[in-house]
């Protein structure tokens, strides 16, 4: 299937590289209002460029549109692409409120097109093993779980673009922008949250509206308790890994980026030997994107795109569709709501079937 990209910034570069590496898709075109940016991006990848969104979307060869604009500017191009009958894959967060996501879902269902998100960290081999261990009951009763994102962004990062650190276009700070993939991993493995209490603050940056540090306490529907720690004010020379840690009455597993620090269960299984041989932590697998967002590899994006194409071809629900993307956004917005209300417990909507 032929892809087109809306936006030509850093994240669109990841999209382009991932699409080029696919076997069931190809990069066809791009759109940017700036002729110079559109033409430079098109020349780099040997594709068509457009400065008119209408002309870009009118191309009958274009089947799937990816969106790499700032977070709070996803809604309008996504709606336009859906209205044109294109399948849409949108960067995280799909949109910055559950209400906007619901509008997009309604539009996509009406046009019978796929609306999906970039949930690229779900496709790492360790997270699949972690989810399988939860789903098969290896942890016993889940007790304590954690998402920990102790990253660093310097002041220049926020000063580099006017939209960074704003509620309108960033949709939030360390949680909505940097931590959302790890929060998604936690929800993907552990399941829905029942209620949340939180505190957020901007402790180390200037001139931004949003948080650079946040802590939330979670109560899950399955009885587990959990914590989310997210920050862009945690300096490290090489970058701290983002972690998803799960403990239960029969096992514990601590995942640091794309490798386990701990994989320990009361009842051993043959897969444990493989995991200890192939998926345990080493110095090259930690701190991915922690200090420098350009260091993130595009492999997860590639698998994400391939899943969307396969789901379209097989006429089945996509595993990274908008309903899945909505979950992390709903939780993050509830965290913000709780913080505004001085840590008051916020109930989340019951999980839908």
What does this structure look like?
The chain is built from eleven helices and 14 strands. The strands form two sheets. Strands 13-12-11-7-10-9-8-14 form an eight-stranded mixed beta sheet. It has helices spanning 10-20, 35-45, 53-58, 75-83, 98-111, 125-135, 155-159, 174-190, 271-278, 299-313, 322-340, and strands spanning 2-6, 26-31, 48-50, 64-67, 87-90, 115-117, 142-150, 193-201, 213-220, 225-231, 243-248, 251-256, 259-265, 346-347. Helix 6 packs across helix 8 (174-190) and helix 8 (174-190) crosses helix 11. Strand 9 and strand 10 form a beta hairpin. It has two domains: 2-120 and 302-319, Rossmann fold, CATH 3.40.50; 124-290 and 327-347, 2-Layer Sandwich (Dihydrodipicolinate Reductase, domain 2), CATH 3.30.360.10. Helix content is 36%, strand content 22%. The chain is an alpha/beta fold and 353 residues long. The longest helix is centred in the last third of the chain and has 19 residues, at 322-340.
